[in-house]
Design a protein that fits this description.
Blueprint: H1 14-28, H2 40-47, H3 51-63, E1 67-70, E2 74-77
Antiparallel strand pairs: 1-2
Amino acid sequence: MAASKINYRAPEPPYKQIAADLIRDIEAGTLEVGSPLPSESELVERYGVARNTVRNAVAHLRDGGFVETVPKRGSYVRARDQQAPNEGASAG
């Protein structure tokens, strides 16, 4: 699971770049359903960013339904049928 380099000149903020990289790993099966995401410390080291940036990336994944976070245990990849429960709902 090689990390993509963060492009600080890109219009997309670093936390979204990290989230997109992790989503690619989830969709490729590198991160399997039920498996934990790497720890915050591992992600900080892998991407060379601040811990808060990693936390924002994980929150973005959680909001998108890709992972679920268990307090004091970590974040785990969710099954595809559990992802994006609001997908297709109108934003009325």
